[in-house]
From TrEMBL:
Its EC number is 4.1.1.23. SMART domains: OMPdecase (SM00934). It is an enzyme of class 4 (lyase). Pfam families: OMPdecase. One of its GO terms (molecular function) is orotidine-5'-phosphate decarboxylase activity. Keywords: Decarboxylase, Lyase, Pyrimidine biosynthesis. NCBIfam families: PRK00230.1, pyrF. This is Orotidine 5'-phosphate decarboxylase. Belongs to the OMP decarboxylase family. Type 1 subfamily. Homodimer. It comes from Sphingopyxis macrogoltabida. The active site is at 59 (for ompdecase activity), 61 (proton donor), 61 (for ompdecase activity), 64 (for ompdecase activity). Pathway: Pyrimidine metabolism; UMP biosynthesis via de novo pathway; UMP from orotate: step 2/2.
Length: 224
């Protein structure tokens, strides 16, 4: 069975991305390419990374009117990503159109509340209640809209899985015990996230910033 650990590759440099991915390729289950990578390297960069033979998770967090998101996803279809993200806050129609545009070989996953946000941050943007409440609310919307699952933190994944047992749960913001949180505010350990129902874990800096990325990936994998 493949590893649930997906490496977040957050760089604008294709060569650096390939070098990092080559170092850890035997200890991760997939490669997550985000906005930073995609804005710099586009479709060509994704094709180059895909040559390593690991599933590609395109984390573009699309969020716009339904028609625009659907057209953007159609333009991404030739890349055949295994996973693609959109923001659940884009609403029901946007989620439905995103799913319809993606085709059957790509999982469409809705981002609920970014793991870099806490309750005061939600208050700042006019969202009352806790991140937990908001994740549960948006997870229900995602399920009703027919997408495949959600992105949430490890602090909410247990409740979300309980309400939607068949959903696919992407959990970023995981940190090894005593790992630096950086800009992440709702963190748990990789083992805790898996125990609580994560389908896959997204890990970036704890691996990419390590002096030995392969060892860091193996150490995380060993805790799962
Ligand atoms: O809520 C979210 C959604 C996506 N991410 C992405 O995951 C990685 C995490 O990187 P670390 O270096 O392990 O913090 C990054 O690419 C984010 O864009 C997230 O962190 N939280």
């Amino acid at each position: 069975m493949s590893s649930p650990l997906y490496l977040a590759i957050d760089t604008t440099h294709l060569d650096a991305a390939l070098t990092l991915a080559q170092k850890v390729r035997h200890h991760v289950g997939g490669l997550k390419l985000g906005l930073e990578f995609f804005c710099a390297n586009g479709h060509h960069g994704v094709h180059e990374m895909a040559k390593l033979g690991l599933p590609i998770f395109l984390d573009l967090k699309l969020h716009d009117i339904p028609n625009t998101v659907a057209k953007a996803i159609q333009a991404l279809r030739p890349l055949e990503p295994a996973i693609l993200t959109v923001h659940a806050a884009g609403g029901r129609a946007m989620l439905e159109e995103a799913k319809a545009a993606a085709g059957t070989s790509t999982k469409v996953i809705a981002v609920t509340v970014l793991t870099s946000l806490d309750a005061p941050d939600l208050d700042d943007i006019g969202v009352g209640g806790t991140p937990h409440d908001q994740v549960v609310r948006l997870a229900a919307l995602a399920r009703q809209s027919g997408v495949d699952g959600i992105v949430c933190s490890g602090q909410e994944v247990k409740a979300a899985r309980k309400a939607w047992p068949g959903g696919f749960y992407v959990v970023p913001g995981v940190r090894p015990a005593n790992g630096a949180a950086g800009d992440q505010k709702r963190i748990v350990t990789p083992a805790q996230a898996m125990t609580d129902g994560a389908s896959i874990l997204v890990v970036g800096r704890p691996i990419s910033q390590s002096p030995d990325p392969d060892l860091a990936a193996r150490e995380i994998e060993a805790t799962l």
